[in-house]
Amino acid sequence: MSYRVIQWATGNLGRAAIEGIVSHPDLELAGVWVHSAEKVGRDAGELAERADLVTGIKASNDIDALVALAPDCILYSPLMPNEAEIIRFLEAGINVVTPLGWFYPRDLDTTAIEAACERGNSTLHGTGIHPGGVTEKWPLIMSGFSRDVTYVSCEEYSDCRSYGAPDVLHDIMLFGKSPEQAKDSFMLQFLGAGFGQSVNMIADAMGFVLDGPLQATHDIALATAPIDTPMGVIKPGLIAAQRFRWQGLVNGTPVIKAETNWYMGTDNIETDWFDAQAIAESGECFTMKVEGDPPVYITTHGVHPTRDMDWTEVQKRNPGMVATAMHCVNSIPVVCQASAGIKTYLDLPMVFGKAKSV
């Protein structure tokens, strides 16, 4: 059976998602929503920056017309989520897969969304990569090989020079800002809305009874000499690396940790918590630990850029964005088959990719 899918937005993730939907044997691209008027009427393949891909699907910014297509699913990936839009889709009987939240919304008010799912007999699934995939899904799978687990963690190490959005790097992600400006940042709370769901999912699934609110910390490291970056030169004394960490405690002892490390290369950065040599040796990666009997440790590469990649190309098509998009795309069939409501990884069967067609 083929499921008809609308791709909602065509940024870095949306472009990769179009490729994934078109190549997936169980999916059919039914439409594309775009924000800017200049993209309206352009072929989805062109928007995906694939000269060899002509889909015949023209982009639209007419929400009414796209909803009227009655697709099986919308892959919803604008810059920021609009809950009213999601509710409208669900009430219309359209399933929604999104990387923008609802991975494990235990502590969120989802009354309106659940009601919309019931009225439309539809499903909402939050997915992605970090959080929304690697952070909780992989450690949970790893834990299946151990007993008496005492500690679970997932850490990401990302060189943000490969991120092709200078304004976001400086204005939102704080690179090149002063330590004083970092104190007023909303990022710890903003990111914690997602990573907190990851920690809570692991705790509930594995039976950890946490003390209470998560312990959240934001550490910064400063440039010791000028650092060249895609957003310009970071001057000495300004932020060049950051660590965000969320921990669940039991009797005051950390038992679950989600962490993300951002940095602008590994040279000329003060070394306190920032271990430049270790990061340079391991490269960009995810590292996961399950301390139990036996312990399981995994480091993964591939969804981060490698040192030999052309950074100009990486900024256009980052493998991490492609992985996030494909986790969404590959989830669509099981979401379309699921019962109504908000469904997490704990509710759905295994999600897997498909072999390349020949």
Strand order of the largest sheet: 3-2-1-4-5-6-15
Percent helix, as a range, is: 25-40%
Beta content: 25-35%
Query: Tell me, what's the shape?
Result: globular
Instruction: Provide the low-confidence segments as ranges.
Output: none
Alpha-carbon distance between the termini? 19 Å
Structural class: alpha/beta
Rg over alpha carbons: 21 Å
Question: SSE order in H/E notation?
Answer: EHEHEHEHEHEHEHHHEEEEEHEEHHE
Tally of contiguous helical segments: 12
Largest sheet descriptor: 7 strands, parallel
Mean pLDDT: 94
Q: Care to count the β-strands?
A: 15
Entry summary:
By secondary structure, the chain is α/β, with parallel strands linked by helices. Helix content is 31%, strand content 26%.
Task: Give short descriptive properties of this protein.
single chain, 358 residues, alpha/beta, seven-stranded parallel sheet, six-stranded mixed sheet, 31% helix
Describe this structure in words.
There is one protein chain. This protein is of the alpha/beta class. Helices cover 31% and strands 26% of the residues. The protein has 12 helices and 15 strands. The strands form 3 sheets. It has a 7-stranded parallel sheet with strand order 3-2-1-4-5-6-15, sandwiched between helices. A 6-stranded mixed sheet has the order 8-11-12-7-13-14, with helices on one face. Helix 1 links the parallel strand 1 and strand 2. Helix 1 crosses helix 12 and helix 4 runs parallel beside helix 5. The radius of gyration is 21 Å and the shape is globular. The two termini are 19 Å apart.
